[in-house]
């Protein structure tokens, strides 16, 4: 490669660096990540002015840079999957503010039913940690919420079985994530989903750890990696978009019911 050749930097929508290639050969070597989701990202040619070139002792290379698309975190029911991570009975007396986690998880599952958003539930080694808390009412019974439940030993929810389930939902690339523990299974799920090309929305009032400090660090860690931090109500009203939504009244009643329960929520999103 000669000085003065154009270099093409391939950058994903999250700003991940993918490759650098002589521009003459770019068409066959970039946009291979996330199923070509970003094939139409615009290219921006960056050039230094002549005065800067003349005064610099460093050789100047003109570069074409793939500009990252703006990520605003907008979501729609048709593009979304909920992920309920390991809200299990064994953790009930161990997790900081577990009643708030359970209340939020139940609320999110009810919202998923009203808005017809698929939800994936996992259980970490239920032989020792028991099954999902009964308040969430998930299972195969006639009066239960019938959602896929996957047992796992991997900390991340993204097991082979879950990834196979996600292949059935190819147009859903927004993940709403809640559960426990924030600094272990939730964080590793978040990172794996980001790596799979999902926009991840972490429900802050629906995640926790045994130690508040671990929860706080986990929220910041996930945000550093590109996740959106949100709350149960915020993400719910984002999904509704308008009071004219035919589901608005039903979902509003869920919000009122949750608020009336008076479950003690988290006083702060994160405190280090």
UniProtKB/TrEMBL annotation:
It comes from the Eukaryota. Gene3D superfamilies: Isochorismatase-like (3.40.50.850). Coiled coil: none annotated. Pfam families: Isochorismatase. Keywords: Signal. InterPro entries: Isochorismatase-like_dom, Isochorismatase-like_sf, Isochorismatase_domain. The keyword Signal applies. Residues 1-15 form the signal peptide. Residues 80-234 form the Isochorismatase-like domain. Belongs to the isochorismatase family. PANTHER family: HYDROLASE, ISOCHORISMATASE DOMAIN-CONTAINING PROTEIN 2. This is Isochorismatase-like domain-containing protein. It comes from Ectocarpus siliculosus.
């Amino acid at each position: 490669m000669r000085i003065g050749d154009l270099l093409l930097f391939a950058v994903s929508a999250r700003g991940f660096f993918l490759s650098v290639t002589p521009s003459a050969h770019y068409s066959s070597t970039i946009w291979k990540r996330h199923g070509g989701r970003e094939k139409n990202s615009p290219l921006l040619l960056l050039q230094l002015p002549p005065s800067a070139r003349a005064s610099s002792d460093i050789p100047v290379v003109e570069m074409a840079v793939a500009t990252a698309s703006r990520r605003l975190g907008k979501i729609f029911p048709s593009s979304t999957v909920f992920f309920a991570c390991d809200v299990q009975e064994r953790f009930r007396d161990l997790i900081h503010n577990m009643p708030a986690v359970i209340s939020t998880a139940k609320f999110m599952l009810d919202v998923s039913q009203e808005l017809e958003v698929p939800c994936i539930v996992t259980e970490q080694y239920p032989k020792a940690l028991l099954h999902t808390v009964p308040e969430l009412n998930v299972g195969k019974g006639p009066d239960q919420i019938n959602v896929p439940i996957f047992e796992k030993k991997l900390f991340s929810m993204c097991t082979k079985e879950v990834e196979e389930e996600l292949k059935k939902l190819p147009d859903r690339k927004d993940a709403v994530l809640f559960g426990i523990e924030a600094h272990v299974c939730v964080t590793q799920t978040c990172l794996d989903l980001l790596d799979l090309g999902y926009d991840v929305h972490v429900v802050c009032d629906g995640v926790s750890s045994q130690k508040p400090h671990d929860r706080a660090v986990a929220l910041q860690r996930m945000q550093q990696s590109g996740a959106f931090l949100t709350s149960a109500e915020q993400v719910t009203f984002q999904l509704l978009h308008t009071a004219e939504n035919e589901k608005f009244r039903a979902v509003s009643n869920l919000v009122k019911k949750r608020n009336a329960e008076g479950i003690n929520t988290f006083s702060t999103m994160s405190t280090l």
